[in-house]
Design goal:
single chain, alpha+beta, six-stranded antiparallel sheet, three-stranded antiparallel sheet
């Protein structure tokens, strides 16, 4: 198990840090208030390190807790995802973690589609980067341009897409509920 491997390395690391600083166990015990025998057992791996012991040792050596336990460095924070093409629309995921809030950069090509409003639980937020986005929300039919944003309850029937004048690029944020959409039946015309 990874945790056991990390904990097994703490003792030797504590000893190495102490010896590099030319500090005796007795001096470290005095600085931390931890007994010499406890410090010795920590360094030999006979005692598991806990925060109650590691915090005073980190303070005495003036090092971070991460340095004492050998925490792995933080990984590359950049999100490197592949685009997903669905229904002619290209989505670039901007979040890596499943569940919770999801963010996408979306490119809708130049096309004129008939709106098909859908509903789902949650809220959605859109921010237009370039082009014009047609948003049908309940009884409203609006056009959003670059720099404009919209936020709405997704239980209201909604649809968005290109105005047909050109492509539109936008950011879309929604919770996990936004992945479960439901098509609403369109009322029949009275012809």
């Amino acid at each position: 198990m990874v945790t056991d491997d990390v904990l097994a390395e703490v003792g030797p690391r504590l000893r190495r840090i102490r010896k590099d600083r030319e500090v005796t166990l007795a001096a470290l015990a005095e600085a931390t208030g931890i007994s010499v025998s406890t410090l010795s057992r920590l360094e030999s791996g006979q005692r598991k390190p806990g925060l109650d012991l590691l915090l005073p040792i980190a303070q005495a050596h003036q090092v971070s807790l991460d340095e004492l336990v050998g925490a792995p460095p933080v990984g590359d924070p950049r999100v490197r995802s592949r685009p997903i093409v669905h229904g002619g629309r290209t989505h670039w995921p901007l979040t890596r973690q499943p569940g919770g809030l999801q963010a996408y950069k979306v490119l809708e090509p130049k096309r004129r589609l008939e709106p098909e409003p859908r509903t789902h639980e949650g809220y959605e937020w859109l921010y237009i980067l370039s082009g014009k986005l047609r948003l049908v929300l309940g009884d409203h039919d609006v056009v959003l341009t670059a720099g404009e944003a919209a936020e709405f309850d997704t239980r209201v029937p909604h649809w968005f897409g290109s105005t047909g004048e050109g492509p539109v690029e936008f950011l879309s944020l929604f919770g996990p509920q936004g992945e479960r959409m439901h098509v609403r039946a369109r009322p029949k015309s009275k012809d």
